[in-house]
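Q&A log
Question type: sequence-to-structure
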Amino acid sequence: MEVIISQDPCSASILAARLISRLIRIKPDAVLGLATGSTPLNLYRELIRMHRVEGLDFSRVRTFNLDEYIGLPPDHPTSYHSFMEENFFLGVNIPHGNIHLPDGLASDVPSHCEAYEQAIRDAGGIDLQILGIGSDGHIGFNEPGSSLASRTRIKTLTPGTREDNARFFGKPENVPHHVITMGIGTIMESRILALLAFGEGKAKAVGEAVEGAISASNPATVLQLHPNAKIYLDESAASSLERIDYYKWVFQNKPAWQADS
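Response status: OK
Response body:
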């Protein structure tokens, strides 16, 4: 696990975007796992800039999103389909057929989840998965207590998560109770994990995830077992880390050949 601490969310997001850009230039048909919410917005803006200004080509890239609310059609303004279209897909040249998101209107949810897993396997697996982290340590919508070996499935949201997402729906009671989410086991099979976390509200969860004992009580702790997990933080999100000076020293003294890797 590599912990990368920047002064602010924008700087951290630019570093994560460089990692993704390098991957795409090396492997033009890379498979990206995408996340939603406010955390990756600066990352998506930087990738759009790279496409428009630097010619970063997404024409062969394939994508799989982490999750979607059950009961929301793709064109619903608070669906993750709509979020991704507005905040990323309209700004780059990923072909529509290369984009995959869970279907919140699936009539047979277990079968749809199995098909989603198969589609990931058919694509050769996810090369790089973007992640956020909840204030309770959830990744995707794998709430505390989720199996660390879980696969794509239906999950019931905790009251706290529904409260956190209420700003997108107007009030908590409008937030759906259920989602389809990639499982922790699915996420951990990605070749690279890039988790972004910003703000003091994420500091406790980040501290536990990076330096605490591995436990389903904080699902993000499982990232300690991944061979190539990168944690991009701003100063506030890093404030609970005990070895913060060491993480900064390591990043500042990386050999040249590890730049943007």
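Response note: Residues 2-254 form a domain with the Rossmann fold fold (CATH 3.40.50.1360).
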